[in-house]
Amino acid sequence: MKTVVISTLGCKVNQFESAAFKDGFEGHGFVVSTGDDADIVVVNTCAVTASAGAQSRRLVLRLLRRHPRATLVVCGCYAELEGRRLLQDERLAGRRLLVVGNAVKDRLVPLALDGEERQALHLGDIRAARTICRLPLKHFGERCRAYLRVQDGCESFCSYCIVPYTRGPNRSLPPQEALQQARLFAASGHREIVLTGIHLGNYGKDLQPAESLGGLLSLLSHALPEVGFRLSSLEPMEIDTSLLRLVAGRDNIRPHLHIPLQSGSESILERMNRRYSTAQFAATIDSCLEAVPDMAIGVDVLVGFPGETEGHFEECRDFLAALPCTYLHVFPYSMRPGTRAAGFPDQVPAAEKARRVAVLLTLGEEKKRLFARRFIGTTRKVLVEGGDGHGNLHGFTDNYILVHFPGEARHIGEILPVRLCGEGNDHVLGEIEQQ
After folding, report:
1. Dihedral angle, C-alpha 16, 22, 26, 31, nearest 10 °
2. Count of alpha carbons within 13 Å of 36, Cβ hemisphere only?
3. Who contacts 281 (Cβ-Cβ below 8 Å, separation ≥6)?
């Protein structure tokens, strides 16, 4: 029996693509394995930061040693940037190695199964890509929540980000193809679907005729009322009244948005080439909560950007402290060669970045606790994602509160009404409400 190992780093789009690879290999009789000495090893890499690129390279070399006879297939953003260097690495000499770029990931499975090439570079031209790779799949692994990639590419060129160079221009999946994929997920038992992309808010602008993310979300949520839908990250200026009205009006669209801020300092936002002000960002958050008062709002923050002084950081901290958001995702700035910011002066020392990250993580945890506390005593829909095998289940509410509660394993994968009863360490305690 042939086996394949698929290892994935990075974003939700990579996770969707890896699920499609798994589906493709299984269709050719392969078994997906976590053991040693597989026949094929696929590494879906990330390069959003320099440290992510280094992690990708280490993972390739580690899997190389663990699977000495395997065909090695490296894809993703690190492959897009460093594929030629990989082929020249002496440690990979003599191995069957294929490097597959983001523009041609739909060819990955047939390329891996074709035993003719020993070492080859299949990158395509990501800058010239005009259509999204079709990667249909029947089932999103063992997860209760499926990711549906409907968009690829980015044209924002933030000064710290390499992604426009590795993912290419904006490309969207036509609405009917997205609906077909969503129907497949629903038929496979997935009760919740997350629409995702590299720049999701740009969905549909490249299609003829042009479409919108709100239009797609309306189509999907209307066609599949038994499925819950979430949106992954959206830029603040792409959240408009019509989208919020849709979220408020459809029972199966989850009241949860994730909105990247990156900095609460005006001057740092400008250096980052982010195209909004803190006032505009705050107004967006206010609009979200006015339309959907129970909405969970996550915020991304990038700490220690070149030139960020203590004053800038305090400005950012104070802005976030006053912002009515739910939780923070905090990252230290990591220099990414090939971006404008890599050449900026006044790089912040690593120890200082770590201190600032810790301050904001503490703030974020407090915000998360305060948000969860608001809903103690209420009943929310919960997608049951797993259990501990001892009569305890866990899952997230529709507005993204982690809940632990007693229940039988047969409920995993279901959406249940759960009453939130009290606070735990990093979660809320609940009980299934009898219907």
Report:
1. -150
2. 4
3. 236, 259, 261
**Using 50, 70 and 90 to split pLDDT, how confident is the model at 142?**
confident
DSSP state of 434: P
Angle of helix 310-322 relative to helix 350-374, nearest 10 degrees, comes to 10
The phi-psi region of residue 285 (left if phi > 0; otherwise alpha if psi is between -120 and 50; otherwise beta) is: alpha
pLDDT tens track for 200-210: 999 999 999 99
Burial 402-412 (b: 16+ CB within 10 A, else e): bbbbebeeebb
Q: How does DSSP classify residue 273? A: T
What's residue 180's pLDDT? 98
Element (H, E) at 147: strand 145-149
Q: What is the pLDDT of residue 91?
A: 84
In whole angstroms, give the CA distance from residue 222 to residue 211. 17
- What is the distance between the alpha carbons of residues 288 and 292, in angstroms, rounded to a whole number? 6
Surface-to-core class of residue 331, CB atoms within 10 Å of its CB (0-12 exposed, 13-18 middle, 19+ buried) = middle
pTM (predicted TM-score): 0.95
Q: E strands along 367-434, which residues?
A: 379-387, 392-397, 402-406, 415-423, 428-432
∠149-152-158 over CA atoms, to 5°? 130
Q: Are 182 and 148 in contact (CB under 8 A)?
A: yes
Q: Quote the CA–CA distance of 137 and 187 in Å, as a whole number.
A: 12
Distance between CA 66 and CA 171 in Å, rounded? Answer: 37
The two beta strands, 192-196 and 171-172, are unpaired
**Other Cβ atoms within 10 Å of 345 Cβ, number:** 6
Residue type, 283: A
Question: What pLDDT band is residue 153 in, cutting at 50, 70 and 90?
Answer: very high
Nearest Cα neighbor of 101 from 165, 154, 40, 10 is 165
The structure tokens listed for 27 are: 């269709």
Alpha-carbon gap, residue 231 to 216, rounded angstroms: 11
373 and 423 in contact (C-beta within 8 Å)? yes
Of the candidates 17, 37, 40, the residue with the CA atom closest to the CA atom of residue 29: 40
Instruction: Give the integer Cα–Cα distance in Å for 423 and 367.
Output: 14
Helix/strand/coil for 130: coil
